[in-house]
Amino acid sequence: MEGGNSPNLQLQQLPLATAAVSVQPHTDSFSYKENLIGALLAIFGHLVISIALNLQKYSHIRLAGSKDPRAYFKTKTWWCGLFLLVLGELGVFSSYAFAPLSLIVPLSAVSVVASAIIGIIFIKEKWKPKDFLRRYVLSFVGCGLAIVGTYLLITFGPNSHEKMTGENITRHLVSWPFLLYMLVEIILFCLLLYFYKEKNANYIVVILLLVALLGSMTVVTVKAVAGMIVVSIQGNLQLDYPIFYIMLVCMVATATFQATFLAQASQLYDSSQIASVGYILSTTAAVSAGATFYLDFTGEDVLHICMFALGCLIAFLGVFLITRNRKKAVPFEPYISMDAMPGMQNMHDKGIAVQPDLKASFSYGALENNDNMPEIYTPATLPIVQEQHGSKGGSAPPYRVLEHSKKE
Fold it and tell me: Which residues in 310-328 are b (16+ Cβ under 10 Å) and which e?
């Protein structure tokens, strides 16, 4: 009996096993297709955002260098940049609905690469080939590394896909890995905020860690909102779930506070430092949030995870080299050194610049004019008290530095 029934059982189980094998490649190809769509949307969005920001910057510079009395918002260039900026943000926003969060976030390195290339193309100075390569060798190396890292991210990115329905998001929100992650993040955020506000710890790492922690929650809510909108467009309405509006409010709130801390960091530190350190910290925090909330790396083998981490590290190094090569802003000097004034001799000792004394006059160079000097060589002054120098009997030197007593 058992021997006669076993062939029938094997024949009955064969079609089921064949069907299971035929479904798996279809699922993998579909997930890879969604990954590719999301990655292309993110790359397109970041490229358009870089072009838009440079267009708006060009509009401001052109108005500042001309006698055009119009405001910047009355120029076509600025409005074109604004339109491209909105288009790019929509592209990045929609990319979260197709690809995993851990894949989309590191692709923001594309905007840094695009800004570097646009800056090199539109520079006004003319350099010799040797000087050009020596000056921008770090930018070229950084762009190459960022492109290699982006390729590794897209190739070995996670393939976890699920529909962003209200039930799925609610289930992820109350899962114990994400609750534990949120507890650690809230404690760390409160400690950093205490040291930043109460102890005046205005370090760039402290401020950008606050930005990164807020940004990790921003991208989690952005993916939820974008995914529920796409599912609703496909026919399964999700906008009647309360979780959609909770995520929408959290997205707006975290993005607002994130912009506030970024504005404070930009007042204290150079933009190149903020770009490199902020990209590294924000990407690390966002990938960690995606791995705990959406379980992006569930089912991935060790090789894919290691290659994805290698792509992130290469992209980090590329962004660091690109921003490392940027010029630092030269601070404005409130006075002019005597040796920098045309037609004037350097009369002070050892080339040390003499600052103006506010109690006497506002003369650039802090030297008082003398009656014996021609008017063409006298510096422009705004005297508070008019004083006469020199004696009638003897010859006075052409210049004399005022020395005020402590009583004055």
Answer: ebbebbbbbbbbbbebbee
